[in-house]
Task: inverse folding
């Protein structure tokens, strides 16, 4: 039973789940929007929103925290601090939007586009 267990596992072990979230987040920050499954987009949303909130502080500590959470992706950390966080300085949450796109492929996986508002 999964009592009090939050989050989706995607049939992966914990390290693979973390790697998946990190890579999706890096792609989202660098490109502005990505297309993925609805489940992955829903799991990624709180992860990205926390990172943007940390980036809004614009301190050395916040940069180091972001590098730690994103696996030393300095280009992503720089873009978060210089481009994305200043846009949301007066906004207290809700930085991303998930748009459903319909089903794809033979397995009929529900697709979604996640983007910054």
Result:
């Amino acid at each position: 039973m999964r009592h009090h267990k939050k989050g989706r596992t995607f049939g992966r072990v914990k390290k693979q789940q973390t790697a998946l979230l990190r890579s999706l987040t890096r792609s989202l920050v660098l490109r502005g929007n990505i297309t993925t499954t609805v489940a992955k987009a829903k799991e990624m949303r709180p992860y990205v929103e926390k990172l943007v909130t940390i980036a809004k502080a614009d301190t050395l500590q916040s940069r180091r925290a972001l590098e730690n959470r994103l696996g030393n992706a300095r280009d992503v950390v720089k873009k978060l601090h210089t481009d994305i966080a200043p846009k949301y300085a007066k906004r207290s949450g809700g930085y991303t939007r998930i748009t459903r796109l319909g089903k794809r492929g033979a397995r009929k996986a529900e697709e979604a586009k996640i983007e910054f508002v």
The mean pLDDT is 95. The beta strands are 33-37, 96-104, 109-116.
